[in-house]
Amino acid sequence: MNYSATIGLEVHVQLATRTKMFCACNTDFGSPPNTHVCPVCLGYPGALPVINEEAVRLTVMTGLMLGSEINPFSKFDRKNYFYPDMPKNYQISQYDRPLCIGGAVAIEANGVAKTIPLTRIHLEEDVAKNMHVRNASSIDFNRAGHPLMEVVTEPELDSSEEAFAFLQALKQILLYGGISPCNLEEGNLRCDVNCSVRPAGQPALGVKTEIKNLNTFKGVFQSLQYEIKRQIAVLESGGTIVQETRRWETETGITESMRSKEAAHDYRYFPDPDLMPVVLSSEQIECWKALLPELPRQRCDRLVRQYSIPPYDARVLSADKAMADYFEEACRYYASSQATRSAHAVAPSAAAGDEKLAKTGPKAISNWLMTEMLRLLSEKGIDIDQAAIRPKALAELVRLAEAQVVNSNTAKDVFAALFEQGGDPELWVKQKGLVQVSDAGAIEAMVEKAMADHPGSVADFRAGKSAALQFLVGQVMRASKGKAHPQRVQELLKKKLTTTAN
Ligand SMILES: [Zn+2]
């Protein structure tokens, strides 16, 4: 029998605020345990919370970016439960009046575009971190009270691939909006996953399970793959699915039962009497709307329009905000160096190609980023901000290659060197003596020497063995230490081999 899966996600996002949700404690990650705490976030009796306005703004901005309806009147509620990670014995969250309602995220999975509707986006406080060492458990309250935004999807994802694509698309938008650093290692993004299966064609949904606290996208993907298979196997063997919360075990790659699922009323939500409702005027919302940043898709379209690069390039570049920023900065440097060169005396050979260069510049920059840059970044496991080669240097390198000061192989070596240590490509090329030899006389001398040194290859070529040409080109390139203009070498060799035959 065929089965369909139905998946819903609850994504918890730590917001990029300097201070906690309801107190002035610092949100820095990695400080010694329990150094960013105060009576409010430690839940001392009588301590009063104050709403962090920046957290409200970031949540509303997220709602605006995702097309949610912004609630002009929202409030905070107490979600009551007893667990050591929450010393007040309740978490301040939003129950029936969240900040944002609805909205959607566009995704593409398995080559199919789809829009995933959102149920809501609300604001709450993060809980403390439990650490279990041998026979003891300790609790770090630095995280307790960090503003936490929860993005809840409708159960309209059909596969683990779609869930993965959703998280990637959401992360991209959050980064563009400066909503959260989205650093998974630091726990900025954590996800609960709801999943059920049913025989294909059956309208009623199956019984769902929830997998809690996944902190990597890979974990979401793998746990869903496992859980879907597990549920199908239970149904196939005539069993029933139990509604429960499960835990993903990374080491063994399975989900395990934790506890049976609480219904919402178990938390006895009620409005927090210490906090005023959040009332947002339409002027305030309009004002934030006017400050919305450009989103990945808009940027992709603009890159195509503004720089005449192919849509594929634009998609790759705009997928990472830092990469797109780098590209545009390099293009600005490139354009300004072009302008300077046109304003001053320009070498005749370059002047003829100026118009063409203006078009090829951004495409050349894009090529460098999509090939060498991405390759080296993944090799070193670093982000583009950490690469020593800065946009200005890349623009300069592109200009040197276009002006044929260096050939493409040398340019690659220069890129790799500057990627490691930074610096000015022109200076580097001069210091290392890498300027390309394009001088016809110098090339001719090297070509003649190669032909004289390898008469056998010359004879082979003339006997119809065209491979001998490449060998001779290689000899000249070696003699020039890789600096000869390869095309000119090839042209000249061919000419000499064919015209001076016999
Ligand atoms: Zn505090």
What does the model show?
There is one protein chain. With 502 residues, the chain is an alpha+beta fold. The protein has 16 helices and 17 strands. The strands form four sheets. Strands 1, 2, 6, 7, 8, 11, 12, 13, 14 and 15 form a ten-stranded mixed β-sheet that branches. A three-stranded antiparallel β-sheet has the order 5-4-16, with no helix packed on it. β7 (104-109) and β8 (112-125) form a beta hairpin. α5 packs across α6 and α15 (467-479) packs across α16 (486-499). The protein is elongated, with a radius of gyration of 31 Å. Zinc ion binds at residues 20, 23, 25, 37-38, 40-41, 145.
- Overall pLDDT metric: 90
> In total, how many beta strands?
17
Give the fraction of residues assigned to helices.
40-55%
Which structural category fits the helices and strands? alpha+beta
Please indicate the count of domains: 3
Radius of gyration: 31 Å
Characterize the overall form: elongated
* Small-molecule components bound: zinc ion
User: For the terminal residues, how far apart are their CA atoms?
Assistant: 78 Å
Unreliable sequence segments: 345-359
How would a textbook summarize the main sheet? 10 strands, mixed
Task: Please work out how many helical segments DSSP would assign.
Answer: 16
State the assembly state of the protein chains: single chain
Strand content: 15-25%
